[in-house]
């Protein structure tokens, strides 16, 4: 059923994904005069389990607020959102696939993979520069768009590092979310920082299967060091090392 929202009309086309907290659908966006603005994706909160429903809704609202605040080429933008009622939603660009599918296709060249890594690092560096920790970095949350750009998505676990701006009150929800493979050791003790994102980035780079490139394993090893103090000091440092690897190998 078409839905009017401000100066726009949203026409749902078909569902393209579903998770534990709702679903994603392809929609056509029209202006109030009937002109077609384009095809987008809409993420809708529709949690069936009512145990922590209110907490999940607050987390969804925070996801929208923080993601909409991040304007960067390698972060999925949010254009329209509706945060009232039991089924809040937001509209974003429609992706062609995610990094999992791209890697699974076997079509990515070494240069493609290095370009994807660079784009992901640039997006996360922006987040950290603006005092956000993503806390759920993994290939599933890196989307690929028609122009070949990779962008970070899914801000469901994002935290504002500025304690004055945010109070972490959704501890029960946070304790059951995330993907273990990409979690730094200190996460299991409830400790988060930019270094936990750096650990996840190291594992994500490992997923790219680029060990044959001199320097990549060193980048991964330092990023995924067990002790946070042994990891890269920042994502900018990781980017600098990646650039040296690319240049040093003529890629």
From TrEMBL:
Domain of life where this protein originates: Bacteria
GO MF terms held by the record: protein serine/threonine kinase activity
All residue ranges annotated as the Protein kinase domain in the record: 10-251
InterPro entries: CC_SR_Kinase (IPR050339), Kinase-like_dom_sf (IPR011009), Prot_kinase_dom (IPR000719), Protein_kinase_ATP_BS (IPR017441)
Annotated binding of ATP, by residue: 43
The UniProt record lists the keyword ATP-binding: yes
Pfam family for this entry, one: Pkinase
Keywords: ATP-binding, Kinase, Nucleotide-binding, Serine/threonine-protein kinase, Transferase
This protein's name: Serine/threonine protein kinase
Organism: Tatumella terrea
